[in-house]
Write a structure and sequence with these properties.
The complex is a heterodimer of chains A (342) and B (82). With 342 residues, chain A is α/β, with parallel strands linked by helices. Chain A has one domain. Helix content of chain A is 41%, strand content 14%. Chain A contains 14 helices and eleven strands. In chain A, the strands form two sheets. Chain A has a nine-stranded parallel beta sheet with strand order 6-5-4-3-2-1-7-10-11, with helices on both faces. Chain A has a two-stranded antiparallel ribbon with strand order 8-9. Chain A is globular and about 60 Å long. Chain B has 82 residues and is an all-alpha fold. The chains are: A alpha/beta (342), B mainly alpha (82). Chains A and B meet through helix 2, helix 10, strand 6, helix 11 and helix 12 of A and helix 1 and strand 1 of B. Strand 6 of chain A pairs antiparallel with strand 1 of chain B.
Chain lengths: 342, 82
Amino acid sequence: MELGRKIAQALEAATFERVAGVGLANAEVNRPRIARSVLELAETPLGTGDTAIVVGAGPSLRRRRSLERLRASGFAGTIVAADGALGACLRAGVVPHVVVSVDPHPERIVRWFGNPALTAAPADDYFRRQEMDPAHREDELGANRALVELVDAYGPKIKVAAATSAAPAVVERCEQARMELYWWNPMYDDYDRPESLSRRLWKMNGLPCLNGGGNVGTAAWVVTHAVLGRKRIGLVGIDLGYAPGTPYEQTQYYPELVELLGDRYREAFIHTENPVTREVWFSDPAYHWFRDVFLQMAREADCETFNCTEGGLLSGPGITTVPLDAFLESAAAAGRKERTNG
Amino acid sequence: MPEFLKGNYKLAASIEDKADAADSTDEFEKKALSRLGGSICFVSKKGLMWQGEAEPQASRATPENGDKDKAGGAGTKDSPGA
């Protein structure tokens, strides 16, 4: 078996090691700020109908100008964004109804909401190095300032589906920008086991536990279906892979792979042809695992999931691949039919 | 070690405890792997959402902070889906 796939098999347990401790600690810190359950989110006014778009921060978002096309279409359904895609959404004039945030990292994630306290380029090169949002790579401080203004302006219109694991700095920033927070627990382990952390959390705060699927984009899809009850879900920017030509140095886990594998780090990348575009995208073990998990969840879910990314690596049973324009047109047609009938 | 197998001499070389070495390699791999993990867990063979469970009134587990209603409360069933 390829090295990348072999490592990917270990990541369910590895992720628990990575996030459980800090996630539970954050749940304790966030506890006094929890006023609403994510279940209440379904009762709030969002987009119309049972159609939704989930926005991730993958490279197809820019390559395919997905957000500009979404905005131009006048899509009336619900828009749910991963926190990493919030900046791209607002810059494109798309104000998501809901933003999902899960990552417990103490300093990094607040940057997706614009960090008013950032006055100098930080030593951590996470945002400069990666391919996720080029705006941050080109002018880190300028991009942050612009994002602070956008989030301050549109924050009151955006609801946040916040995991109790979310970094307290993110929670503070959301409150400062007058974003309404709706809370849930990440499912950490098998809640049927008496010593389960998930069960312990539920007993502590009474919030539902959501199966997060390894990353915030998948968690946003889970919120959209399991919490908001949307039945037709289009995906943009959920590539679960890196675009052709991306230097390995700009991939998310590059430093960690070099540390683990030394000169053999290249062997951890898995190259796959997109069945529609025929482009060869690639993943690292984490993205490969995210893809496998997403396919597993989508296959068993009681909703239709449409991959409208026009790129990426997410294809298989449970996923229908369609161009974004076709999905938006079918959503508009369904809306017209609903209005005629109703 | 049985008494009759014990030598009556001393070795010049020191012998490392392989069990300890293996443990420390495992620990390194575990730590290194954990840095490759995701930002949120995935629990296989479970549904998309668990809302807690209904318990008999007398023994019902109340949230420790006592603000279950304020937090929106837990339901009683698993979600549709996976």
